[in-house]
# Entry
Amino acid sequence: MYVRNNRLQYPVRVEKPDPLFAKQVQELLGGKYGEFTVMAQYLQQGWGLRGAESNPKLTRIKDLLLDTAMEEMMHVEMLSTMIGLLLTGASPDQQAQAADASPAVAAVLGGMNPRHVIVAGLGAQYADSLGNPWNGAYVTASGNVAADMYTNAICEMQGRLQAARVRELTDDTGVRDTLTFMLARDLLHQEQWLAVVEELGGATTVLPIPAQLTADTLGKHEKVAYAVMSYSADPAATTTGEGRWASDPSIDGKGTFSYIAEPYAEGTSVDLPAAPAAIYGSLPGDPTGATIAPKGTQGKRAKDTSLIHKIGDAITGNEA
Amino acid sequence: MYVRNNRLQYPVRVEKPDPLFAKQVQELLGGKYGEFTVMAQYLQQGWGLRGAESNPKLTRIKDLLLDTAMEEMMHVEMLSTMIGLLLTGASPDQQAQAADASPAVAAVLGGMNPRHVIVAGLGAQYADSLGNPWNGAYVTASGNVAADMYTNAICEMQGRLQAARVRELTDDTGVRDTLTFMLARDLLHQEQWLAVVEELGGATTVLPIPAQLTADTLGKHEKVAYAVMSYSADPAATTTGEGRWASDPSIDGKGTFSYIAEPYAEGTSVDLPAAPAAIYGSLPGDPTGATIAPKGTQGKRAKDTSLIHKIGDAITGNEA
Amino acid sequence: MYVRNNRLQYPVRVEKPDPLFAKQVQELLGGKYGEFTVMAQYLQQGWGLRGAESNPKLTRIKDLLLDTAMEEMMHVEMLSTMIGLLLTGASPDQQAQAADASPAVAAVLGGMNPRHVIVAGLGAQYADSLGNPWNGAYVTASGNVAADMYTNAICEMQGRLQAARVRELTDDTGVRDTLTFMLARDLLHQEQWLAVVEELGGATTVLPIPAQLTADTLGKHEKVAYAVMSYSADPAATTTGEGRWASDPSIDGKGTFSYIAEPYAEGTSVDLPAAPAAIYGSLPGDPTGATIAPKGTQGKRAKDTSLIHKIGDAITGNEA
Amino acid sequence: MYVRNNRLQYPVRVEKPDPLFAKQVQELLGGKYGEFTVMAQYLQQGWGLRGAESNPKLTRIKDLLLDTAMEEMMHVEMLSTMIGLLLTGASPDQQAQAADASPAVAAVLGGMNPRHVIVAGLGAQYADSLGNPWNGAYVTASGNVAADMYTNAICEMQGRLQAARVRELTDDTGVRDTLTFMLARDLLHQEQWLAVVEELGGATTVLPIPAQLTADTLGKHEKVAYAVMSYSADPAATTTGEGRWASDPSIDGKGTFSYIAEPYAEGTSVDLPAAPAAIYGSLPGDPTGATIAPKGTQGKRAKDTSLIHKIGDAITGNEA
Amino acid sequence: MYVRNNRLQYPVRVEKPDPLFAKQVQELLGGKYGEFTVMAQYLQQGWGLRGAESNPKLTRIKDLLLDTAMEEMMHVEMLSTMIGLLLTGASPDQQAQAADASPAVAAVLGGMNPRHVIVAGLGAQYADSLGNPWNGAYVTASGNVAADMYTNAICEMQGRLQAARVRELTDDTGVRDTLTFMLARDLLHQEQWLAVVEELGGATTVLPIPAQLTADTLGKHEKVAYAVMSYSADPAATTTGEGRWASDPSIDGKGTFSYIAEPYAEGTSVDLPAAPAAIYGSLPGDPTGATIAPKGTQGKRAKDTSLIHKIGDAITGNEA
Amino acid sequence: MYVRNNRLQYPVRVEKPDPLFAKQVQELLGGKYGEFTVMAQYLQQGWGLRGAESNPKLTRIKDLLLDTAMEEMMHVEMLSTMIGLLLTGASPDQQAQAADASPAVAAVLGGMNPRHVIVAGLGAQYADSLGNPWNGAYVTASGNVAADMYTNAICEMQGRLQAARVRELTDDTGVRDTLTFMLARDLLHQEQWLAVVEELGGATTVLPIPAQLTADTLGKHEKVAYAVMSYSADPAATTTGEGRWASDPSIDGKGTFSYIAEPYAEGTSVDLPAAPAAIYGSLPGDPTGATIAPKGTQGKRAKDTSLIHKIGDAITGNEA
# Structure
C-alpha cells in the first residue's frame, strides 16, 4: 500500500524563471539515468524479488528497494516542481514582452524546449533534456540480486554525475541547494547498493555473475576465462598488457589474470549456404549461382597468415 | 584503423535448424545488454576518452577499451552466424513441408520471429528477442572513467546472466559450446573492468562518483550523505534498518552509515501559481479562479501530523 | 511525501502457472493504456497543476489526482505480482520437462514472451503484450484541467475495455476475481473524471477546449465552426449528413450544427519556390530549372472544375 | 477510392521566413495530437469499423470517419506547406549572410531545427517540435465505437489547445489566419464526436465503457464500483472527499458515488517463491537461502497497524 | 577477425571549438543515413550473405561489404573525434566565462545539445542532430543481393547529400577538409554499389525485384504491371501522363509503360461483419444492431457514379 | 483537396480466418517498407517539392508523387480490410472453443498477435509483424529530387520482396490474388521512379548525388573519389579487388575506378585533451593526471608498422 501527503522531501526554491535551465533539468527527471528511472526500477525489483518469504536477507533487500523507491518518487516530484517554477513566467505572452525588451533574451528563449509551452502548458514531462520520451527499456530488473545491486549502484553513479554537471550550469542558489541535497542522497545510494553486495558476501562471493557459473564449470573454456586478449595489429603498439587486469589474482579471487598479446581466433570463416528459391535472396535468374563460370581463381581466398595467434594457441592447445 | 579477415574468433556449429531458438538468441545480439551494445559502447568510450596523451593510465585504458571492442564485434559476428545457421531450413516452402508433416512443428513455427523470414530473408537483425530494434540509448559513455568502468562491468554481468539463461534453452551441443566460450569471456570482462577500478585506486578512491564531490563538499547536506532513510509507514514493519548499509563504515571509507527509521521530509507542499491566460491552462471563463467563492473550509488542507520525522529533524536540526 | 507498507490493495491469487497469459497481462501493466500510464499521468498532472493555492476547486482536483495515483501504483503492483505468479514454474528447466511431456505444451511455451525468462528472470516488465517498452509519450499532462479530465476518462475507458478482453482469455478464477476488482475501480475512475468536468460546469462551460476560444472569437472563421463537411466524391453516396452532428444545437449549446455536402476548399494550389543552391535540392546542373525549355503545354495544369464546392462558397461568400 | 487535386482546403500565407516558428509548427503536424495522428486514426477506425453493413447508425459513423480523415489530410498538407514557406530563406548560405548581419539573428538560427536543413532540405517532417518522429502508437482504434468517439474528442481537444498556444507564438497575420481556420474546424470536430456519443444514447447509455459490464455484473466488487478512495496518510489533510465525485448520483445514472476516507487495502503482502536454479536469480551458492541462519528477528516484519482501513472493512465486510 | 591500431583514416583538425556545429555533425554520425548506419548495415549484410561458398561473385561481394564496413567504422571514429574536438572548451565553467563576455555567445550556447555536456561529458553520442538515438531499424539487410545493393547506394546518396549540407554550415577549414575527404569516399561508395548491380547483369537483369517474379508470372495482373494510374479528380488537371513513365519501354526492358488517366478501382466497398460479444466492440446493449430500426433510407448509400474508370475497365475487361 | 468513396482499388477476399497470417500481413501495412510508409513518403515529397511552379518537369513529378500516394493509401485500406477479415472469428470466446477442439489450434492461437484482440478489437494497427509501431523516421523526403527517386525505387524493391515472401506463407487463393495484384503494382512503381531518373538525364547526369559536387570539385580529394580501398589484413586474402568496381569507367561516366589493396590511413592517432574540472571526467583527485609518475615506458605506444599503406601513400603523395 502506498499513501501520501503534499509535503516535499526537501524544499524547492527557484530565484528567477529560467526556461533554458528547465530544459536541462529534464535530463535529471526523465533521462536514462534520471530519477524516474530509479523510482521505476526499484519498484519493479522490489515487487519481483523472489524468495523473500523464507530468507531474511532477501526480506531486508526487498524493503530497502521499496523504501528507496518512495524516496526516488519524491525526487521526481521535487524536480517536477522545480521545472514548473523555472517555467513560471515563460508563457507566450510573457516571452513576447521579454523578447521585445532584449534581443539576447529572445535568443535564449529560442533555445528553450517548445513542448514545455505547447504541449505541457509550462510543466515537466517524462522526457530528457532533448525531449526523448522516457522509455521502459531504461529499467533493469533481472531477478539476479547481485547483478541488480551493481546495476543500481551504477545508475546512481551516472545519475549523480549528471546532477553534478547540471548544478554547474546555474547560479541560482535555491536550485543549487536542492541539487546539493540530491547529490548527498545519490552518494548514499551508491554506497548502499554496494553495501548490499558486501552483505551478500562481497565481490569474491557474487562474482562472476551469475556466480553459479565459475570458471571451473566451463570445461575447456576455463583457460580463456581470465585471459585479456589484445586486438592490436601490432602487439608493440598497444599498452593493454600493462594493466592490473593482465596479471595477478582476479577480482573474484578465484583465478589469475593472464594476457594474450596477439589477436586470438579459434574460428574459421563461415559462408552460409545459398537460400532456397522462395527467399528471393540470391541472384536473379540463377539462385544457386551454378551457371556462373568462375574465371581463374576469382572468388577463392588465399589462406590468411597475417594474423598470428601463437600465444593464444599455446594457451588453448588447439588449432595449431 | 580497423582491418579484418574472415575467420571467426571461435567456431560456430549448429546441429539442426531451430527458428524458435534463433528468436531467443537475438536477445544476446541486439538486446539492451547484447554484444552489439558493448561493442558500440567500448568504441565510443575509447574514441571519446580525454587526457590519454599525457597520462599512461588513461592510455592503457583507451587501448583496453578498443581492443575489447574488437572482440565484441567478433561476438556479434558469431551470433549473427549462429542465427543464420539456426534459420537455415526455415524458408516458407520448407516450413510448409514441415508443418504438413506435423501439427506440433507447425505450432512451433508459429512462434518464430516472422521478420526473420519476411524482412531479413533468414538472417539476423539488430533487434532483441521480441524484435525491438537496437537503440543508441543503450550505450553509456559519460566521460567519467570510473563511472564508465563500473557501467561496463554491469553490462557484462547482465549480458552474461542472459547468455547463461539462453544456454539453458537448448540441447544443441554445438550452440552450447559456443555460448560457453562466450560465458568464459564475459567472466573475464566483468573482472577486467573492475580491475581497472582497482588500478584507479579502488572503491575508496573512485567512490563516490564523481569523486570530487565527497560528502564534506556538500555543506549542511553532509549529514544525509550516509543516512539510509526508511519510508515504511510503520517503522516496526520494515527490515531496512538491519542491513550492512545501516551502520558501520561506508564503502568508500570516508563516512559511517546511519539509519533514519521514520519517513523524512524537510520540504513543504508547493502549489504552483496560476498560469497566464495565454496558456489556456486553468478554468474556462475564470482563469484565476477569483470569482469562485470558497464554501466553508473547502480546499483548505488541515496540517498533516501523521508522518513524523523526528529523527530526521534531530539530524538536520531544522524544520523542528 | 510517499510512504508504503507491503499489503496489496486487493488479493492476487493465481491457480496455476500460465506463461502465455502472463504475456497478455503485460498489456494491462505496461501498454499505452495500462496502469503504469495512468499512475504516471495522475502524478504529473497533480504535481504540475497550477493555481491550486488560491482556488479550492483546483485544490480538490490536485488531491484527487494524487490520491488516485497512489491507487494506480497499487494496481501496477498487483499486476506485477500476478505476472510473477503466472510465470512461477516457467523457468527453462521446468519448460524442458513440460515440453518433453507434451508437444502441445511445448508449442504453447513457444508463444510465451522470451524476455520474461531471459531478461527478467520470471518477472514483469514495463512493456506491453508484445514487448514494446513503456513510453513517456503515453502520458498527457497539458496544464488545461478540462482537457486533461476528459483525457483521463478515456484512458480509463480504453484501459477498462482491454481489461475486460484480457479477462475473457482466462478461466483462472483467482485471476478473474482480481481483474473484476479492477474493472470495478476503472468504472469508478471513468465516472470520477467526468464528475470533475461536471463540477467545472459541464460540457456547456468547458467546451470547446480551450474554452476561451469560442466560435465568436474566431472572426470570419466562425462560419465553419459548426459546419460538418463531407469529402465524398458523390454527395449522394455518403450518409455523413444524416447524423446528429449535421443539424440541431451543438454540444456546447453555443451554436447550431450545419452540413456542407460537397467538398470544400478555399485554398489554391501552392508550388514552393526553388531551393537555393546550398540545399542541393533541385535538378543537377540546373538548380532553378531555368534552362529546361518547356515543350508545348507540358507541365501546365488545366483548371480543375471537377470538384465543385458551391455550398461551401455559398456559406463563405468568397472565391466564387 | 481516394482522388485529389492540387487545391488547399484553405489558403496558406506566410509573411516572412521564420525557421524558429517552423520548428514549433511541427508539433501540430507530427506531434502526438497533431493532424497526422487524427488523419491516420480516423482512417483506421473507419476501415476497421465492424457491423456497418447491417446497421445504419454504424454506416453513418463510418462515412463520417472517412470524410473527416480527408479533411485532416488537407490539414497536414496545409501545415507542410506552411513549414515549407516559413523555411524559405533559411538555407545555409542565406543563414550565413543573416548571421553576419546580426548576432541576434545568428542566435535565433542556432535554435532552429537542424534537420529542417540537413535532412529535409527546407521541408516538413513527420515529427514533433523536438524532432521525435511520429509514432504509430499515437493512434487509437479499439473497435469499441463509444470509447473511440470519446478518444477522438480528446484528440481534438488537446490538438486545439496546442494550436491555440502555437498561434500565440507568432505575429504573422497570414499564419494566424490559417491557424484560426483550423481552430474553427477543431471546434467542430470536438463537438461532432460527442454528438456521435449523444446519438448512441448519451452518457447514460454508453457509460461505463465497455457498457456491457455494468456494476451489477461484477459480483461482490459492485460495492467498490462507485466508491472514491483516498490514499492520504491523514484523512483530514486531503480534500478529495469534498467533490462532485464523492456523493450524489454517478455520471452514468446507474449508481451513487461514495467516499472511503482512509487507505483501503484488502490484499496481503506477497513474497514470490524462490526461483529455480536455472534462472540464476537468487543468492550465489545458496539459491534457496536455506543455509542462511536467521539471527534473532532479522527479516521478520512486525504486523503493520499504522494504516487503518476501518471504513474499507466496513464496506467490504472482510479482513476485519 | 577484426584488429586495429590508433591511426585515423584521414586527419581530423578543428580550428576552434563550436558546440553548435558539434550538434549538427551528429546527424552524419548517428542519423538515419549516418556513418554508423552504413557501418552496421554492411557488417550485417556481409555476415548474412548466403551462398558465397559456391559462387565467386558472391564471395567478392561479401569481401567488398566487410572491407567497406571497416572504412565506415573509421568514418564513425573520425566524426566522434571531430565532435570531441569541437566540444573542447564547452564545459560548464568555460561556458559561463564565455557567456559573461558576450550575450550573443550565451545565446549560441543556448542552442547547443545539452546532452553533450550533461550525459556525454563533451563527447559524441549514437544519436542524430536532435538527439534521437540511433535505431536498429535504420539498417536494411534483406538477403536479396540486388535489392540491398540499390539500398546501399541510396544510403550513400542521402548520406553524401547531408554531408554536403553540413559542410555548408561551417567555415572551419580543418573541418571542411575532413568532410571533403568523406564526400570523395561517399562518391565512390555510391558508384561502387551500382557497379555491383552492373556486375549482376544490370537493371535489365535484376529488375523487377525480386526478379523471379516478372510481370508474366503474375497471371491476369500482368496487365497492370506497367500501367501508371492517375488519381487526379480531373484527368485534365494532372500532368502525370506526360512523363517518361507513361509510355515507351519499361526500365527493365521487359514491358511497355502505359497510362490509365482516370481513377482505377476494381474493388467494391467492404463492411466488416459485426464483432462477437466478447470483443465489446459495437453498440452497448445491442452488439449486433438488430433492434435499431432503420428510418427511411438512412444508412443506405446511393450507388457512386462520380468516379468513372472506363479506361481501367477497358484494360482489365471486368466490372464493366 | 482529397475526396473518397467506399470502393476498394481491387477486391479483397479471404477464404477462412487465419490470425497467425494476419500477424504476418502487418509487415506489409506498417513495417519499415510497408504501404503506409510509401503513402506518407510520397505525400511529403509531393507537398515539399520546390520549384514546380516554374519547371514543367518538376510539375509532372509532383503530380506523379501525389497520384501515386492516393494509390498507396488504397493499398493500406486493402491490407487493413484483409487483416480485419483474417481476424474475423478470432475473438476470445471463439478462440476458447477452437482451442478446446484441438491442441494444435490452441498452439497456433498462442502465436497470434495479442494486441489484435486486446487493443484493436480484431482490427489492424500501424505496426509491423512484431508490433513495432510505425515510425516517422521510416520516411525519407530530402528535397533532392534525384536522391528521393532512387530512394522511392528501393522502397518499392524491399516492399515487393516482402510481399513476395508473405504470399509464400499462405495457401488462401483470395489472399494470394490480392497480393499478386499488389506485386504487379510494386513492379510498376519500381520502374516508374527509375524512369523519372532517366527523364532527369539518367545516371550519368544525376550521379554522384548531390550532382553539383563532382569529383573535380573536391580538390586534392579527387584522387580517392574513385578508389576502392580494401581493409583486409592480408591483401591476398580478399577478393575485393576483382570486381567491376575496381577498374573500368565509373558508373557516372566521369572517372575511372581504381583499387587500393592495402589498408589506407592518412590520419594519425588523436588523444583528446583532458577535460576541465567541471566535467568530472577524468581521474578523481587528479583530473589532469599530472601527478601520476609514468614508470618506464608504460603507456607509451611503439610506432605501429604492421599495417603498411604504400599504395595509398603513392596515390596521395603525403605521409610517406
